[in-house]
Amino acid sequence: MRRVLFALFLVVACATSAVADSIEEAEAVYSRGDYARAARLFRPLAEQGNAKAQFNLGVMYEKGQGVPQFDTDAVVWYRKAAEQGHALAQFNLGMLYLNGQGVSQDAQEAEKWFRLAAKQGDASVQFNLGVMYAKGQGVPQDVREAMYWYRKAADQGYASAQFNLGLMYAKGQGVPQDAHEAAQWYRLAAEQGHAHAQSNLGVMYFAGNAVSQDDREALKWIRRAAEQGQANAQSNLGLMYAKGRGVPQDFVRSYMWYSIAAAALSGDDGKDAIKSRDLSASQLTAAQIVKAQELTRLCQQSKFKACE
Q1: If we measure between CA atoms, which residue out of 90, 161, 159 comes closest to residue 126?
Q2: Neighbours of 105 (CB within 10 A)
Q3: What three-state secondary structure class fits 99?
Q4: I want to staple 54 with a disulfide (CB 3.0 to 4.6 A). Which of 29, 46, 138, 301 is the partner?
């Protein structure tokens, strides 16, 4: 009897290892963009009940990768994985219900799947559920509920949730307005490279709002955001050069950053950037304006990495 049980254990262990190897192979093939072969590898695993393969096959049907694009088939595979507790499958199934893709539109069913996914602790799912509550997308608008899910994700280090928490503290949405708390959450997100958080934190240092006024610290964060293409930060960097705050006054560089910001901003922000650029231009000679325009072109071509 012991030998039989031991042999059975070996068979199960080998089978489990084989499935893991097959999933890894399928995922590697998918990552290389060979979708038709990936679908062939995922399908037998999905039919055997492997939740990860079911989820991946659902993604491929939703996107039409290696298989015909069919939302109804995506629903089938997402549901199979979701019923096994696969968090991303639950979230994606919720999105299909929310948008009425492959199923009748049903906001209540969507919310059910979103909550099941979020309760499993996936930070990206918790963040997205927070966004939905904040905007009232597919769920009743509820800023307190948004704060709850943002905090869950933020406590796991999810940068976008940390930024959104900071924003809600700054505006007093769902919580008492608290600039110090906002600065703390912005900093956590900024240190992870979140451009909007870097921009907002830089502005707080520039103004001395809830942090000690510090032009060098303001310049550091605003520059990091600007170099990621954050247009408001680019405009603020133009201001710092125009005022000589944290850097030597330089109207050529000011013109350049305002020009870059104006190309990306719209509405009143775009108009303000153009006006500020023109004010900087009024301090320049014709030759300096030509130089500033060339620097603008080079900076944009380098995706904001060769601007200084």
Answers
A1: 161
A2: 13
A3: helix
A4: 46
Q: What percent of the chain has pLDDT over 70?
A: 93
Contact of 184 with 201, CB cutoff 8 Å: no
The secondary structure of 1-29, three-state, reads CHHHHHHHHHHHHHHHHHHHHHHHHHHHH
Categorise residue 207: left if φ over 0, alpha if ψ from -120 to 50, beta otherwise.
alpha
Contacts of residue 290, defined as CB under 8 A and 6 or more positions apart, other chains included, come to: none
> Which tokens belong to 291?
């130089």
Q: pTM of whole model > 0.90? A: no
Tokens of 19: 């499935």
**Encoded amino acid at 248, one letter:** P
Q: Are 163 and 199 in contact (CB under 8 A)?
A: no
CB atoms within 10 A of CB 268: 8
Q: Is 70 exceeded by the pLDDT of residue 19?
A: no
- 211: DSSP letter: S
- Number of Cβ atoms within 10 Å of the Cβ of 282: 9
In the structure, what pLDDT confidence band is assigned to residue 22 with cuts at 50, 70 and 90? Answer: confident
Cβ contacts of 145 within 8 Å, gap of 6 or more: 130, 133, 139
* Location of structure tokens 């406590």: 155
Q: What is the CATH number that goes with domain 15-120? A: 1.25.40.10
Cα 72 to its chain centre, rounded Å, is 28
Beta-carbon count within 10 A of 251 CB: 21
Digit-coded pLDDT (tens) for 106-144: 988 988 999 999 999 989 889 989 998 999 887 889 999
